[in-house]
User: Which sequence fits this backbone?
């Protein structure tokens, strides 16, 4: 039986928002989220009942994020014109803000692999389907991403230790 | 390193999600994707779930019916494109408020009776003819719909009324004057009858 779409939004809305924030940044994440769930709602009746809803949503979010990034490249933000606003990446100087900057600095494939594996919890085979490479390549991209984060993110803690 | 998902959660994620879900409801409505919109309201007979298709109000459900199960049924029988989107239910919520506040005696809402078929739907179409504060027996309703021997079927039609309160199955009683069953429980049926008798 297919559950009401509201349940899908309830269960996966937070994860998809975090994935969008990692892939396109906090500023554009809300547009990417909205486009993702609107497209998902349109095709939801055709989704097989036994499908993995989270992998399906992340696949849509991946495509919508690419659209958002392309649109942004076509219309570069007039950085010099707008007044300086507080960063939405987290409290300035907080470890979250540092993490955002480190994540934003990752090469695209690594950032996607990190987001889909560590934020969405997808298996590498599912990530390979989304990114269009092998499972090994997806695993490597996530591992390289984490290695880079460890190098560049000052708040990085070893497993289990409080940062 | 600790890569738990809440590293990316941010402080106001709940607020952001609430805003995004509201926006999704409006966008889905604008794009014609909102097959079933629902909300819940408080009432003197407990929380009521209200659901509407683009055609009209399709379901009113008491808490004892289990709102999650009701939504599952709507998803199966009408469409899985179900969202909590209160705006489409504004008029229904307002009229129910007025009814419970004794400011309203009849409902003026477009109804979608597609959850009922055949004889049951026929009975439910006729129930609003029983005026506010009045009651009929199951047998009288059977006569009203032109099938005087279908007393039991009338009972089934009342028990399966998808729009209780708005379609007034609470005004149908047993021939001996006892209230008979009710989808919202006996206490709810008696509360509605008292409310209408006091007006």
Assistant:
């Amino acid at each position: 039986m297919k559950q009401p779409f509201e349940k899908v939004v309830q269960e996966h809305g937070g994860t998809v928002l975090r994935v969008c924030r990692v892939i396109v940044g906090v500023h554009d994440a809300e547009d990417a989220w909205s486009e993702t769930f609107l497209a998902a709602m349109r095709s939801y009746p055709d989704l097989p009942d036994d499908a993995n809803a989270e992998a399906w949503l992340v696949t849509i979010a991946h495509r919508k994020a690419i659209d958002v990034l392309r649109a942004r490249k076509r219309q570069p933000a007039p950085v010099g014109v707008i007044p300086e606003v507080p960063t939405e990446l987290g409290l300035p100087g907080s470890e979250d803000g540092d993490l955002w900057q480190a994540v934003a600095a990752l090469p695209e494939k690594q950032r996607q692999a990190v987001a889909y594996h560590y934020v969405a919890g997808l298996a590498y085979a599912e990530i390979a389907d989304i990114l269009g490479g092998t499972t090994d390549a997806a695993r490597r991209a996530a591992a390289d991403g984490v290695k880079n984060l460890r190098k560049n993110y000052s708040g990085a803690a070893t497993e289990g230790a409080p940062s | 390193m600790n890569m738990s998902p809440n590293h990316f959660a941010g402080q106001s994620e709940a607020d952001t999600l609430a805003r995004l879900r509201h926006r999704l409801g409006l966008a889905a409505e604008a794009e014609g994707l909102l097959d079933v919109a629902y909300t819940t309201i408080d009432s003197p007979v407990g929380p009521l779930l209200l659901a509407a298709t683009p055609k009209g109000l399709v379901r009113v459900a008491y808490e004892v019916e289990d709102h999650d199960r009701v939504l599952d049924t709507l998803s199966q029988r009408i469409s899985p494109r179900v969202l909590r989107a209160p705006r489409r239910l504004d008029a229904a919520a307002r009229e129910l408020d007025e009814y419970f506040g004794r400011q309203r005696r009849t409902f003026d809402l477009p109804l979608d009776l597609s959850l009922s078929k055949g004889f049951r739907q026929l009975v439910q179409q006729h129930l609003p003819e029983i005026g506010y504060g009045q009651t009929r027996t199951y047998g009288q309703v059977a006569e009203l719909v032109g099938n005087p021997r279908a007393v039991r079927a009338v009972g089934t039609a009342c028990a399966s009324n998808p729009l209780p309160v708005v379609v007034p199955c609470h005004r149908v009683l047993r021939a001996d004057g006892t209230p008979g069953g009710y989808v919202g429980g006996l206490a709810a049926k008696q509360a509605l009858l008292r409310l209408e008798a006091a007006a």
